[in-house]
Structure formats: structure tokens, C-alpha cells
Design a protein that fits this description.
By secondary structure, this protein is α+β, with helices and mostly antiparallel strands. 48% of the residues lie in helices and 16% in strands.
């Protein structure tokens, strides 16, 4: 055994010496390529020889074979298995057991029957396929040895790892949850919804950049809303002691998202800024540029002051000014009015503004792979790939074990101040207030607001 190892190492040394003694200068790229090739060949030789020698040791140990009731059937059966270093070749002995037949060395080494690659190679292919196409992942990991269908099959055989339950759960004052969805094309079904739920402890700011503190993501396809939120609650319970914790659910208010309010304790719903601004933009589509600016500021004032009466008056005035846009205005204002409290909470609760990055989470977790380029997926693949992408996306942001058991002292949590926007910002010049419809000059909250601006 020792002599065989020395022979393998000697070949590696000879190759390195020949390059070092070469009269011509070798470029760094040539050195990297050659060293890597020689190193991979060396490791494959070691693995193959190790398996071969272990098989020979069992064959020579007749006493152990009798105790295990192993009877030799064939010797030196060849086998190839692809590893992350390359292809490993070895031969082994085939035995008859008390029941059935077996290659004991394959069983001991964890090599499955008919498997063409090692478990680490399978993992590497799936991991690469989270960032690139099946063909490119095969080329990247195995130099194209395996087909696209093989990579797809490995994804379908894979599962996202289960997170362990902490022996000492973390206590935090606030927990934020962003819930949104990606729209993915499924073969035979068209565009379907794939949910993404992100849980974190608020936003950390580093200069101009921000990141979610201790974030983890959950994505599932094929589960109903109750099953999904049951899973979310279970994942949160594994990590946190929720006694005394206030949870903020940031989302657009879709039906499956609203179900989360029934599963989470002490939860407050917050309409995220992206969907609020989107609804305002859609409501004011078709207005003149001047009126868009005027009404946007009026709506922002209503949300800031929490005046639903002002909101209702603004809605009626929009319909009076643009009756031809009734359907669009009703849809947009109906949405904004329905989630009025979920928008106003950002004005009165500073912590409610410490989260709500739903769209970036969707892009970061799913869209970059599933929907940003034209793809049509199978349901079977998405059921496996979506949870893997969600689990993988927080691999490098997962907190250290020592951080998981720290207790966050309430007196250390400070609400970040937010600049208040002056009431007049964004509104047209008071001299052109006459452009408002005549019905504005009734004694209403909206009329008082506008008159107050014109006198300032």
C-alpha cells in the first residue's frame, strides 16, 4: 500500500520537476492549469487505490467473510464513479450474502448501485444549477460529462435542508416579515404564483447600503396558504421566543398573504411602500402632469394625518374631474382606502418603517433564476428548486451560533427618526389653486387643507 502511494506521488513530483526545470518561462495561467490537472489526477488515483486496497483487505480476511456469510462470486469487477476531482476508477469483489448479492466496498463507501457520480458531485451540480442553466452547470462542475436531463433529475431528487431548532431561542422586540410572490411559467399551466416569505430582525444601515439583519427565506410551490403559514410559524418558533415580540407583516395584501395574520401572534400589517406608490401611480394614470403632482401630494397628506374623511373627499373630487377614468380611479382608490390603516401605521410607528423590501427579496431569491429570463419549468422541478433557492439565498447571511443566543435588551432598541415632509411640499403654487374643481370650496376637510395652503 505504501509503495503504491509513493509511486503515485512520485509521478506527481516528476511532472512538477519537469516544469520547474524547463528552459522556457511558463505563464501563470499555464501553471494554474497544469497544477490543477495534476492535482485532480493525483486525488482520483488516491481514492481509486484506497477503495481497491480496502476491497483486497476484506477478500484476504476469510474469518471476517465467514462471520458475515459472504461468498465470493466475482473478482475485479470494474467501476467508475465521477467525483468533484474527476473520474475515479477501481475494481472490487462481488459477493453472495445470506440474502441477495453485494459489493461490500461500495456499500461501506456510500456508493449507490448504478450511481454514476458521488454525492458531492450531485450537490455541486444542483448548487451550480441555482445560478446557471443545466448545460452550463454540467460544464462548470463536470466539464460537460453529464447531460442537462441528469442535472434536472438531480434537482428533483434534492431537498432543502431542514433548519435545526435552537436549544436557547432568541428574544427580540421586533420581527419583520416580507411576503410577496414571483410569477413563473409552468409547462401546461402558464404563469403561476410562487410565494417568497422573508423573516428578519429589521434593517441594518451601512452608509448608503442596507441589509436585513439575520434574514431567512421560505419559498414553496403547491402548498395552500394555511400549509405555507404553518410552515412559516414553525420556522420562526425554531429560532425565536415570541413572548413580548411585535411582528410586522409587510406585503401587498393578497389573499394568501392576509392568511398570515391568523397564524402569527401580536402581528401588525404594513402595506409596503412599493405597492402603495404603485397603486397611487395607477390611480393617477391619465391625469395631467400638474394634477398628478397635486393629487399625489394630497393623498400623501391624507396618509400622514390619518384622515379617512379627507381620503374620501379626494376620491370624489378625482371622479368629478376625470369621470372618464372612473374604473381606474375606483380600483386604485379602493385599494388604497382598503389598506389605509396599513399605510398610516408607517407614519405613527417608527419600527413599521424598519422593513418592507418585498420586491428585492423576490428578485434575490427567485426571479434571477426562475423568471428574469424566458423559461418554462415543470411543476416537479419547481417544487424542489424553489425551497432550495430560498434556503441557499441566506447561506452566507446566517448568524453565527454565538449571535443566536444573545438576548436583545429592550432599552438598546432605538426607533430611527424619520424626517417629516412639510405639508406644502409637492403641491402646486397657491396662485393656481383656481384649477381645482368648484366643489372643493365647500366646508370640507379637503377644502380647509387647500385654503390653508393658499394662505401660507
Amino acid at each position: 500500500m505504501n509503495q503504491i502511494i509513493e509511486d503515485i506521488v512520485a509521478k506527481f513530483k516528476d511532472s512538477m520537476y519537469s516544469m520547474m526545470e524547463s528552459s522556457s518561462t511558463v505563464t501563470l495561467n499555464e501553471m494554474e492549469t497544469r497544477f490543477l490537472t495534476e492535482y485532480e489526477a493525483l486525488v482520483c488515483s488516491f481514492i481509486g487505490e484506497y477503495l481497491r486496497q480496502r476491497d483486497r483487505a476484506l477478500l484476504a480476511d476469510k474469518k471476517a467473510r465467514r462471520e458475515k456469510k459472504l461468498v465470493v462470486q466475482r473478482r475485479e469487477d470494474p467501476r467508475q464513479i465521477y467525483t468533484v476531482f474527476g473520474e475515479v476508477r477501481y475494481d472490487r469483489t462481488y459477493y453472495r450474502k445470506a440474502v441477495g448479492y453485494e459489493y461490500p466496498i461500495d456499500t461501506q463507501a456510500g456508493i449507490e448501485s448504478y450511481s454514476r457520480m458521488s454525492p458531492m458531485t450531485s450537490y455541486s451540480l444542483v448548487d451550480a444549477a441555482c445560478d446557471m442553466s443545466y448545460a452550463k452547470s454540467s460544464e462548470y462542475v463536470t466539464d460537460g460529462v453529464f447531460s442537462k436531463q441528469t442535472v434536472m433529475r438531480k434537482i428533483r431528487e434534492s431537498y432543502a435542508p431542514e433548519s435545526p431548532e435552537l436549544s436557547q431561542k432568541k428574544k427580540v422586540r421586533y420581527l419583520h416579515i416580507d411576503a410577496d410572490e414571483d410569477h413563473v411559467s409552468i409547462l401546461g399551466k402558464g404563469s403561476v404564483i410562487v410565494p417568497v416569505i422573508s423573516v428578519y430582525e429589521g434593517v441594518e444601515r451601512h452608509g448608503k447600503r442596507s441589509n436585513c439583519r439575520n434574514v431567512f427565506h421560505i419559498s414553496e410551490y403547491g402548498k395552500n396558504s394555511e400549509e405555507l403559514w404553518d410552515q412559516v410559524r414553525d420556522e420562526i418558533d425554531k429560532r425565536y421566543d415570541l413572548r413580548g415580540t411585535t411582528i410586522y407583516l409587510h406585503a401587498d395584501g393578497a389573499g394568501w398573504i392576509s392568511e398570515g395574520l391568523n397564524w402569527l401572534p401580536n402581528v401588525k400589517f404594513v402595506l409596503d411602500t412599493y405597492h402603495k406608490n404603485k397603486a397611487i401611480k395607477q390611480t393617477l394614470s391619465g391625469f395631467t402632469a400638474e394634477d398628478r403632482s397635486k393629487w399625489k401630494s394630497a393623498l400623501e397628506y391624507a396618509f400622514a394625518t390619518g384622515s379617512k374623511e379627507f381620503m374620501a373627499e379626494a376620491w370624489a373630487s378625482m371622479l368629478s374631474s376625470y369621470p372618464e377614468r372612473k374604473e381606474t380611479i375606483d380600483n386604485g382608490m379602493g385599494y388604497l382606502t382598503g389598506f389605509f390603516d396599513a399605510i398610516h401605521i408607517r407614519e405613527e410607528d417608527a419600527e413599521a418603517r424598519n422593513g418592507g423590501a418585498t420586491e428585492p427579496h423576490v428578485q434575490h431569491v427567485l426571479s434571477y433564476r426562475l423568471s428574469s429570463t424566458p423559461h418554462v419549468w415543470s411543476e416537479q422541478t419547481i417544487r424542489r428548486l424553489a425551497p432550495i433557492l430560498a434556503s441557499r439565498s441566506h447561506t452566507f447571511t446566517k448568524p453565527k451560533e454565538t449571535e443566536l443566543i444573545q438576548i436583545l435588551r429592550p432599552d438598546k432598541v432605538e426607533a430611527k427618526p424619520r424626517k417629516r415632509v412639510p405639508r406644502g411640499i409637492g403641491l402646486p403654487d397657491p396662485d393656481i389653486m383656481a384649477s381645482f374643481p368648484s366643489e372643493f370650496y365647500k366646508r370640507t376637510a379637503l377644502n380647509k387643507y387647500l385654503k390653508g395652503i393658499s394662505k401660507s
